[in-house]
Protein backbone atom coordinates (compact mmCIF):
# COMPACT_ATOMS: atom_id res chain seq x y z
CA UNK A 1 0.00 0.00 0.00
CA UNK A 2 1.30 3.46 -0.89
CA UNK A 3 0.64 5.59 2.17
CA UNK A 4 0.16 9.32 2.16
CA UNK A 5 2.69 11.15 4.32
CA UNK A 6 1.22 14.15 6.19
CA UNK A 7 2.55 17.30 4.48
CA UNK A 8 1.61 19.54 7.41
CA UNK A 9 3.59 17.59 10.01
CA UNK A 10 7.10 17.79 11.47
CA UNK A 11 8.50 16.20 14.63
CA UNK A 12 7.99 19.49 16.50
CA UNK A 13 4.41 20.08 15.29
CA UNK A 14 3.14 18.96 18.70
CA UNK A 15 4.56 22.15 20.24
CA UNK A 16 1.74 24.14 18.64
CA UNK A 17 -0.92 22.01 20.37
CA UNK A 18 -2.07 21.83 24.01
CA UNK A 19 0.41 19.53 25.76
CA UNK A 20 -0.49 17.82 29.04
CA UNK A 21 1.66 15.71 31.37
CA UNK A 22 4.85 17.59 30.42
CA UNK A 23 7.32 18.62 33.14
CA UNK A 24 8.19 22.25 33.74
CA UNK A 25 11.94 22.46 33.15
CA UNK A 26 13.38 25.48 35.01
CA UNK A 27 16.37 25.82 32.64
CA UNK A 28 15.14 26.11 29.04
CA UNK A 29 18.66 26.37 27.61
CA UNK A 30 19.76 23.18 29.37
CA UNK A 31 16.71 21.42 27.93
CA UNK A 32 17.56 22.51 24.39
CA UNK A 33 21.19 21.39 24.79
CA UNK A 34 20.06 17.96 26.00
CA UNK A 35 17.56 17.58 23.15
CA UNK A 36 20.20 18.59 20.60
CA UNK A 37 22.66 16.06 21.98
CA UNK A 38 19.99 13.35 22.13
CA UNK A 39 19.14 13.99 18.48
CA UNK A 40 22.73 13.19 17.47
CA UNK A 41 22.96 9.87 19.30
CA UNK A 42 22.49 6.56 17.46
CA UNK A 43 18.90 5.26 17.32
CA UNK A 44 17.77 2.47 19.62
CA UNK A 45 15.80 0.57 16.96
CA UNK A 46 15.79 0.45 13.17
CA UNK A 47 13.14 1.32 10.64
CA UNK A 48 13.10 -2.19 9.20
CA UNK A 49 12.42 -3.61 12.67
CA UNK A 50 9.55 -1.12 13.01
CA UNK A 51 8.16 -2.15 9.63
CA UNK A 52 8.52 -5.84 10.48
CA UNK A 53 6.52 -5.32 13.67
CA UNK A 54 3.79 -3.49 11.77
CA UNK A 55 3.56 -6.41 9.36
CA UNK A 56 3.25 -8.89 12.23
CA UNK A 57 0.62 -6.76 13.96
CA UNK A 58 -1.36 -6.85 10.71
CA UNK A 59 -1.18 -10.63 10.87
CA UNK A 60 -2.34 -10.48 14.50
CA UNK A 61 -5.39 -8.52 13.27
CA UNK A 62 -6.04 -11.43 10.92
CA UNK A 63 -5.87 -13.89 13.83
CA UNK A 64 -2.50 -15.43 13.00
CA UNK A 65 -0.71 -14.12 16.11
CA UNK A 66 -1.60 -13.46 19.74
CA UNK A 67 0.12 -10.38 21.17
CA UNK A 68 1.74 -10.53 24.60
CA UNK A 69 2.81 -7.06 25.68
CA UNK A 70 4.24 -6.84 29.17
CA UNK A 71 6.78 -5.38 31.54
CA UNK A 72 7.24 -2.87 34.30
CA UNK A 73 4.76 -0.13 35.10
CA UNK A 74 7.74 2.24 35.16
CA UNK A 75 11.36 1.27 34.78
CA UNK A 76 13.94 2.84 37.04
CA UNK A 77 17.54 3.62 36.17
CA UNK A 78 18.68 1.57 39.17
CA UNK A 79 16.98 -1.53 37.76
CA UNK A 80 19.14 -1.54 34.63
CA UNK A 81 20.85 -4.69 35.90
CA UNK A 82 21.48 -7.97 34.09
CA UNK A 83 19.57 -10.22 36.48
CA UNK A 84 16.48 -8.01 36.56
CA UNK A 85 16.43 -7.74 32.75
CA UNK A 86 16.84 -11.51 32.44
CA UNK A 87 13.96 -12.08 34.88
CA UNK A 88 11.62 -9.82 32.88
CA UNK A 89 12.55 -11.60 29.66
CA UNK A 90 12.14 -15.01 31.27
CA UNK A 91 8.60 -14.39 32.47
CA UNK A 92 7.50 -13.16 29.03
CA UNK A 93 9.12 -16.16 27.34
CA UNK A 94 7.51 -18.60 29.74
CA UNK A 95 4.12 -16.98 29.33
CA UNK A 96 4.49 -17.10 25.57
CA UNK A 97 5.42 -20.79 25.75
CA UNK A 98 2.16 -21.47 27.59
CA UNK A 99 0.20 -19.40 25.05
CA UNK A 100 1.82 -21.02 22.01
CA UNK A 101 1.07 -24.47 23.41
CA UNK A 102 -2.50 -23.69 24.44
CA UNK A 103 -3.67 -21.33 21.68
CA UNK A 104 -1.98 -23.22 18.85
CA UNK A 105 -0.83 -19.99 17.25
CA UNK A 106 2.28 -17.86 17.21
CA UNK A 107 2.84 -15.27 19.93
CA UNK A 108 4.12 -11.78 19.20
CA UNK A 109 6.22 -10.59 22.16
CA UNK A 110 6.44 -6.86 22.91
CA UNK A 111 8.36 -5.84 26.01
CA UNK A 112 7.10 -2.95 28.06
CA UNK A 113 10.69 -1.96 28.78
CA UNK A 114 13.89 -0.41 27.35
CA UNK A 115 12.34 3.04 27.54
CA UNK A 116 9.38 2.99 29.97
CA UNK A 117 10.99 5.65 32.16
CA UNK A 118 8.22 8.29 32.19
CA UNK A 119 4.84 8.06 33.88
CA UNK A 120 1.70 10.26 33.82
CA UNK A 121 0.53 11.68 37.11
CA UNK A 122 -2.90 12.73 38.31
CA UNK A 123 -1.55 15.99 39.81
CA UNK A 124 1.39 18.27 39.13
CA UNK A 125 2.20 18.54 42.83
CA UNK A 126 2.55 16.02 45.65
CA UNK A 127 1.97 17.17 49.23
CA UNK A 128 3.34 15.56 52.40
CA UNK A 129 3.21 17.05 55.88
CA UNK A 130 2.18 20.39 54.46
CA UNK A 131 5.05 20.52 51.95
CA UNK A 132 4.26 20.53 48.21
CA UNK A 133 6.79 19.42 45.60
CA UNK A 134 6.58 18.53 41.88
CA UNK A 135 5.21 15.02 41.39
CA UNK A 136 7.58 12.20 40.53
CA UNK A 137 7.13 11.67 36.78
CA UNK A 138 9.52 8.78 36.28
CA UNK A 139 13.31 8.60 36.18
CA UNK A 140 13.35 10.22 32.74
CA UNK A 141 12.21 13.45 34.43
CA UNK A 142 13.13 13.51 38.13
CA UNK A 143 13.83 11.26 41.13
CA UNK A 144 11.32 9.65 43.55
CA UNK A 145 12.88 10.96 46.78
CA UNK A 146 10.63 13.58 48.38
CA UNK A 147 13.15 16.43 48.42
CA UNK A 148 13.22 19.69 46.46
CA UNK A 149 16.48 18.71 44.76
CA UNK A 150 15.23 15.28 43.64
CA UNK A 151 11.95 16.56 42.25
CA UNK A 152 13.42 19.28 39.98
CA UNK A 153 13.00 18.14 36.33
CA UNK A 154 16.51 17.56 34.98
CA UNK A 155 17.13 17.50 31.17
CA UNK A 156 20.26 15.38 31.64
CA UNK A 157 17.96 12.53 32.57
CA UNK A 158 16.86 12.39 28.92
CA UNK A 159 20.39 11.36 27.99
CA UNK A 160 20.59 8.96 30.91
CA UNK A 161 17.32 7.36 29.80
CA UNK A 162 18.62 6.88 26.27
CA UNK A 163 21.80 5.25 27.56
CA UNK A 164 20.00 2.82 29.87
CA UNK A 165 17.43 1.99 27.19
CA UNK A 166 20.30 1.19 24.82
CA UNK A 167 22.00 -1.01 27.42
CA UNK A 168 18.75 -2.87 28.07
CA UNK A 169 17.72 -3.47 24.48
CA UNK A 170 21.21 -4.49 23.39
CA UNK A 171 21.45 -6.97 26.26
CA UNK A 172 18.06 -8.44 25.31
CA UNK A 173 19.17 -8.67 21.67
CA UNK A 174 22.35 -10.43 22.73
CA UNK A 175 20.45 -12.95 24.83
CA UNK A 176 17.99 -13.74 22.06
CA UNK A 177 20.58 -13.88 19.29
CA UNK A 178 22.71 -16.14 21.50
CA UNK A 179 19.92 -18.70 21.88
CA UNK A 180 18.44 -17.74 25.24
CA UNK A 181 14.94 -18.10 23.76
CA UNK A 182 15.72 -21.45 22.10
CA UNK A 183 12.72 -23.77 22.49
CA UNK A 184 15.18 -26.64 22.68
CA UNK A 185 16.26 -25.30 26.08
CA UNK A 186 13.29 -23.89 28.03
CA UNK A 187 15.19 -24.74 31.22
CA UNK A 188 17.19 -21.55 30.57
CA UNK A 189 14.05 -19.63 31.51
CA UNK A 190 13.50 -21.09 34.99
CA UNK A 191 13.28 -18.70 37.94
CA UNK A 192 14.78 -20.05 41.15
CA UNK A 193 12.22 -18.61 43.56
CA UNK A 194 9.29 -20.43 41.96
CA UNK A 195 10.64 -23.98 42.06
CA UNK A 196 7.88 -24.88 44.50
CA UNK A 197 5.10 -22.94 42.79
CA UNK A 198 1.67 -24.62 42.68
CA UNK A 199 1.84 -24.05 38.91
CA UNK A 200 5.23 -25.66 38.38
CA UNK A 201 3.82 -29.11 37.51
CA UNK A 202 1.40 -27.72 34.89
CA UNK A 203 4.17 -25.70 33.31
CA UNK A 204 6.59 -28.65 33.25
CA UNK A 205 3.99 -30.82 31.50
CA UNK A 206 3.70 -28.16 28.77
CA UNK A 207 7.49 -27.97 28.41
CA UNK A 208 7.74 -31.76 28.09
CA UNK A 209 4.91 -31.87 25.51
CA UNK A 210 6.53 -29.15 23.42
CA UNK A 211 9.89 -30.86 23.65
CA UNK A 212 8.40 -34.13 22.42
CA UNK A 213 6.66 -32.36 19.53
CA UNK A 214 9.83 -30.50 18.56
CA UNK A 215 11.93 -33.66 18.55
CA UNK A 216 9.28 -35.43 16.45
CA UNK A 217 9.23 -32.63 13.86
CA UNK A 218 13.03 -32.58 13.66
CA UNK A 219 13.13 -36.34 13.25
CA UNK A 220 10.78 -36.03 10.28
CA UNK A 221 12.83 -33.14 8.86
CA UNK A 222 16.12 -34.95 9.44
CA UNK A 223 17.75 -31.77 10.84
CA UNK A 224 17.33 -29.18 13.61
CA UNK A 225 14.63 -26.59 12.96
CA UNK A 226 16.43 -23.27 13.26
CA UNK A 227 13.22 -21.24 13.55
CA UNK A 228 12.85 -22.56 17.10
CA UNK A 229 16.28 -21.32 18.19
CA UNK A 230 15.36 -17.63 18.45
CA UNK A 231 12.29 -15.39 18.59
CA UNK A 232 11.39 -11.91 17.43
CA UNK A 233 11.21 -9.46 20.29
CA UNK A 234 10.12 -5.83 20.22
CA UNK A 235 10.12 -2.94 22.67
CA UNK A 236 7.41 -0.46 23.60
CA UNK A 237 6.85 2.49 25.89
CA UNK A 238 4.28 5.20 26.43
CA UNK A 239 5.08 8.18 24.19
CA UNK A 240 4.56 10.57 27.07
CA UNK A 241 7.53 12.95 27.29
CA UNK A 242 7.34 14.56 23.87
CA UNK A 243 10.72 16.31 24.00
CA UNK A 244 12.32 12.88 24.27
CA UNK A 245 10.22 11.39 21.47
CA UNK A 246 10.84 14.37 19.16
CA UNK A 247 14.61 14.17 19.58
CA UNK A 248 14.68 10.59 18.33
CA UNK A 249 12.28 11.03 15.42
CA UNK A 250 14.17 10.79 12.14
CA UNK A 251 14.03 10.19 8.44
CA UNK A 252 15.79 7.09 7.13
CA UNK A 253 17.26 6.29 3.69
CA UNK A 254 14.98 4.76 1.08
CA UNK A 255 11.83 4.98 3.18
CA UNK A 256 9.22 7.74 3.21
CA UNK A 257 8.14 9.62 6.29
CA UNK A 258 9.45 9.92 9.83
CA UNK A 259 10.20 7.11 12.30
CA UNK A 260 10.38 7.24 16.09
CA UNK A 261 13.57 5.23 16.58
CA UNK A 262 13.46 5.20 20.37
CA UNK A 263 11.05 2.25 20.33
CA UNK A 264 9.26 -0.11 17.98
CA UNK A 265 5.79 0.44 19.42
CA UNK A 266 4.84 3.70 21.16
CA UNK A 267 1.43 4.12 22.72
CA UNK A 268 -0.75 7.02 23.84
CA UNK A 269 -2.14 6.84 27.36
CA UNK A 270 -5.69 7.58 28.41
CA UNK A 271 -4.71 10.92 29.95
CA UNK A 272 -3.14 12.23 26.74
CA UNK A 273 -5.47 10.92 24.02
CA UNK A 274 -7.34 14.19 23.37
CA UNK A 275 -8.17 14.91 19.73
CA UNK A 276 -6.29 18.10 18.92
CA UNK A 277 -3.82 17.52 21.75
CA UNK A 278 -0.05 17.37 21.45
CA UNK A 279 0.33 13.59 21.86
CA UNK A 280 -2.15 12.68 19.13
CA UNK A 281 -0.58 15.36 16.93
CA UNK A 282 2.88 13.87 17.42
CA UNK A 283 1.83 10.26 16.87
CA UNK A 284 -0.20 10.91 13.71
CA UNK A 285 2.98 11.78 11.81
CA UNK A 286 5.27 8.84 12.59
CA UNK A 287 5.46 5.59 10.64
CA UNK A 288 5.57 3.32 13.71
CA UNK A 289 2.65 1.11 14.60
CA UNK A 290 1.09 2.51 17.74
CA UNK A 291 -1.41 1.84 20.49
CA UNK A 292 -4.01 3.99 22.21
CA UNK A 293 -5.47 3.28 25.63
CA UNK A 294 -9.29 3.29 25.57
CA UNK A 295 -11.25 3.86 28.79
CA UNK A 296 -14.93 3.76 29.85
CA UNK A 297 -15.01 7.57 29.77
CA UNK A 298 -14.35 7.69 26.03
CA UNK A 299 -17.31 8.24 23.74
CA UNK A 300 -17.84 6.38 20.48
CA UNK A 301 -17.13 9.57 18.53
CA UNK A 302 -13.86 10.11 20.40
CA UNK A 303 -12.61 6.60 19.59
CA UNK A 304 -13.70 6.87 15.94
CA UNK A 305 -11.89 10.22 15.66
CA UNK A 306 -8.73 8.62 17.04
CA UNK A 307 -8.96 5.89 14.41
CA UNK A 308 -9.46 8.48 11.67
CA UNK A 309 -6.64 10.80 12.77
CA UNK A 310 -4.05 8.16 13.66
CA UNK A 311 -4.74 5.79 10.78
CA UNK A 312 -6.26 7.85 7.94
CA UNK A 313 -5.21 5.30 5.30
CA UNK A 314 -6.71 2.43 7.30
CA UNK A 315 -3.38 0.62 7.11
CA UNK A 316 -3.36 -2.92 8.57
CA UNK A 317 -1.12 -3.20 11.63
CA UNK A 318 -0.91 0.55 12.14
CA UNK A 319 -3.32 1.06 15.06
CA UNK A 320 -3.95 -0.98 18.20
CA UNK A 321 -6.75 -0.09 20.60
CA UNK A 322 -5.89 -1.17 24.15
CA UNK A 323 -9.04 -1.20 26.25
CA UNK A 324 -8.67 -0.74 30.01
CA UNK A 325 -12.17 -0.74 31.40
CA UNK A 326 -12.16 -2.51 34.75
CA UNK A 327 -13.94 -5.77 35.46
CA UNK A 328 -17.05 -3.98 36.75
CA UNK A 329 -17.43 -1.66 33.74
CA UNK A 330 -16.26 -3.59 30.70
CA UNK A 331 -19.64 -5.17 29.97
CA UNK A 332 -21.35 -1.78 29.84
CA UNK A 333 -18.79 0.06 27.70
CA UNK A 334 -16.70 -2.22 25.49
CA UNK A 335 -19.45 -3.66 23.20
CA UNK A 336 -20.53 -0.24 21.86
CA UNK A 337 -16.94 0.64 20.96
CA UNK A 338 -16.22 -2.66 19.20
CA UNK A 339 -19.44 -2.43 17.21
CA UNK A 340 -18.90 1.23 16.24
CA UNK A 341 -15.32 0.66 15.08
CA UNK A 342 -16.36 -2.35 13.02
CA UNK A 343 -19.33 -0.51 11.50
CA UNK A 344 -17.07 2.40 10.47
CA UNK A 345 -14.71 -0.05 8.76
CA UNK A 346 -11.62 0.82 10.79
CA UNK A 347 -9.03 -1.93 10.78
CA UNK A 348 -7.59 -2.15 14.29
CA UNK A 349 -6.08 -4.70 16.62
CA UNK A 350 -7.75 -5.00 20.03
CA UNK A 351 -5.74 -5.70 23.19
CA UNK A 352 -6.99 -5.99 26.75
CA UNK A 353 -5.22 -4.12 29.56
CA UNK A 354 -6.81 -5.69 32.66
CA UNK A 355 -4.51 -3.85 35.05
CA UNK A 356 -5.33 -0.15 35.10
CA UNK A 357 -9.08 -0.36 35.44
CA UNK A 358 -8.78 -2.60 38.50
CA UNK A 359 -6.48 -0.53 40.71
CA UNK A 360 -7.62 0.04 44.30
CA UNK A 361 -6.00 1.25 47.52
CA UNK A 362 -5.68 -0.75 50.74
CA UNK A 363 -6.61 0.79 54.10
CA UNK A 364 -2.93 1.59 54.71
CA UNK A 365 -2.64 3.46 51.39
CA UNK A 366 -0.89 0.91 49.17
CA UNK A 367 -2.16 0.63 45.58
CA UNK A 368 -2.97 -2.92 44.58
CA UNK A 369 -4.92 -4.93 42.02
CA UNK A 370 -7.03 -7.97 42.94
CA UNK A 371 -6.01 -10.90 40.77
CA UNK A 372 -9.60 -12.13 40.48
CA UNK A 373 -10.59 -8.77 38.94
CA UNK A 374 -7.75 -9.02 36.44
CA UNK A 375 -8.85 -12.53 35.50
CA UNK A 376 -12.46 -11.43 35.23
CA UNK A 377 -11.68 -8.58 32.87
CA UNK A 378 -9.66 -10.84 30.57
CA UNK A 379 -12.36 -13.52 30.57
CA UNK A 380 -15.08 -10.96 29.84
CA UNK A 381 -12.96 -9.46 27.04
CA UNK A 382 -12.78 -12.76 25.18
CA UNK A 383 -16.53 -13.28 25.57
CA UNK A 384 -17.48 -9.73 24.53
CA UNK A 385 -15.31 -9.75 21.42
CA UNK A 386 -16.72 -13.12 20.39
CA UNK A 387 -20.30 -11.91 20.93
CA UNK A 388 -19.57 -8.83 18.78
CA UNK A 389 -18.10 -10.91 15.96
CA UNK A 390 -14.61 -9.59 16.67
CA UNK A 391 -11.55 -11.12 18.28
CA UNK A 392 -9.31 -10.19 21.17
CA UNK A 393 -5.81 -10.04 19.71
CA UNK A 394 -3.74 -9.98 22.87
CA UNK A 395 -3.10 -8.60 26.34
CA UNK A 396 -1.18 -5.64 27.78
CA UNK A 397 0.18 -6.35 31.27
CA UNK A 398 2.27 -4.80 34.02
CA UNK A 399 4.40 -7.61 35.41
CA UNK A 400 7.81 -8.51 36.71
CA UNK A 401 9.98 -11.59 37.12
CA UNK A 402 10.80 -10.58 40.70
CA UNK A 403 9.36 -12.09 43.85
CA UNK A 404 7.15 -9.10 44.63
CA UNK A 405 3.87 -8.92 46.51
CA UNK A 406 1.95 -6.07 44.87
CA UNK A 407 -1.26 -7.65 43.52
CA UNK A 408 -3.50 -9.63 45.87
CA UNK A 409 -4.82 -13.11 45.14
CA UNK A 410 -3.37 -15.62 42.70
CA UNK A 411 -2.08 -19.14 43.31
CA UNK A 412 -0.77 -18.24 46.77
CA UNK A 413 -3.84 -16.15 47.61
CA UNK A 414 -1.89 -13.05 48.66
CA UNK A 415 -3.76 -10.81 51.10
CA UNK A 416 -3.47 -7.10 51.89
CA UNK A 417 -1.18 -8.04 54.77
CA UNK A 418 1.14 -9.93 52.39
CA UNK A 419 1.73 -6.77 50.34
CA UNK A 420 4.03 -5.41 53.04
CA UNK A 421 6.51 -8.26 52.50
CA UNK A 422 7.86 -7.24 49.09
CA UNK A 423 6.09 -4.19 47.70
CA UNK A 424 8.75 -2.55 45.52
CA UNK A 425 6.98 -0.59 42.81
CA UNK A 426 7.34 3.19 42.97
CA UNK A 427 4.22 3.73 40.83
CA UNK A 428 1.75 0.91 40.07
CA UNK A 429 1.39 -2.68 41.33
CA UNK A 430 2.61 -5.48 39.07
CA UNK A 431 1.87 -9.16 38.67
CA UNK A 432 4.67 -11.33 40.03
CA UNK A 433 5.93 -14.38 38.14
CA UNK A 434 3.43 -16.85 39.58
CA UNK A 435 0.47 -14.58 38.93
CA UNK A 436 1.66 -13.85 35.38
CA UNK A 437 2.08 -17.54 34.60
CA UNK A 438 -1.30 -18.34 36.13
CA UNK A 439 -2.88 -15.64 33.96
CA UNK A 440 -1.30 -17.19 30.86
CA UNK A 441 -2.75 -20.58 31.78
CA UNK A 442 -6.19 -18.98 32.26
CA UNK A 443 -6.00 -17.10 28.93
CA UNK A 444 -5.66 -20.44 27.17
CA UNK A 445 -8.89 -21.60 28.80
CA UNK A 446 -10.73 -18.32 28.17
CA UNK A 447 -9.77 -18.35 24.49
CA UNK A 448 -11.00 -21.91 24.13
Essential attributes:
TIM Barrel, two-stranded antiparallel sheet, alpha/beta, 448 residues, globular, 12 helices, 8-stranded parallel β-barrel
Explained architecture:
By secondary structure, the protein is α/β, with parallel strands linked by helices. The chain has one domain (about 15-445): Alpha-Beta Barrel (TIM Barrel), CATH 3.20.20.70. About 40% of the residues lie in helices and about 15% in strands. The strands form four sheets. The chain has an eight-stranded parallel barrel with strand order 1-2-5-8-9-10-11-14, surrounded by six helices. A two-stranded antiparallel sheet has the order 3-4. A two-stranded antiparallel ribbon has the order 6-7. α10 runs parallel beside α11. The radius of gyration is 21 Å and the shape is globular. InterPro entries: Aldolase_TIM, DAHP_synth_2. Its EC number is 2.5.1.54. GO terms for molecular function: 3-deoxy-7-phosphoheptulonate synthase activity. It is an enzyme of class 2 (transferase). One of its GO terms (biological process) is aromatic amino acid family biosynthetic process.
Question: Helices and strands in order, then pairings?
Answer:
Layout lengths: L27 H13 L6 H15 L3 E7 L10 H22 L2 E6 L13 E4 L2 E4 L13 H4 L4 H22 L22 H22 L11 E6 L3 H6 L1 E4 L2 E6 L4 E4 L9 H7 L5 E5 L5 H11 L8 E5 L6 H15 L4 E4 L7 E2 L5 E2 L2 H17 L6 E5 L34 H15 L1
Parallel strand pairs: 1-2, 1-14, 2-5, 5-8, 8-9, 9-10, 10-11, 11-14
Antiparallel strand pairs: 3-4, 6-7, 12-13
Helix pairs in contact: 1-5, 3-12, 9-10, 10-11, 11-12
Amino acid sequence: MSLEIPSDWLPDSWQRKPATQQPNYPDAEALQRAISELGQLPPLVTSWEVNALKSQLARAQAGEFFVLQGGDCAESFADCQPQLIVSRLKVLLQMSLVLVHGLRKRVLRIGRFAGQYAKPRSADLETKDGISLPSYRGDLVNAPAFTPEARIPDPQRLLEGHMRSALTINFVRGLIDGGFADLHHPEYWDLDWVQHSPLAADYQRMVDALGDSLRFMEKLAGAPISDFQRVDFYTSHEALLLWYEQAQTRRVPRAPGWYNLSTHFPWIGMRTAEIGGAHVEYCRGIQNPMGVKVSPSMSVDWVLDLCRVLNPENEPGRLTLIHRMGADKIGDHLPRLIEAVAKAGHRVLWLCDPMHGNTISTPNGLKTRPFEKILSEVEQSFAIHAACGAQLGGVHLELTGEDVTECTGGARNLSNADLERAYRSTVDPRLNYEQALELALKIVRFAG
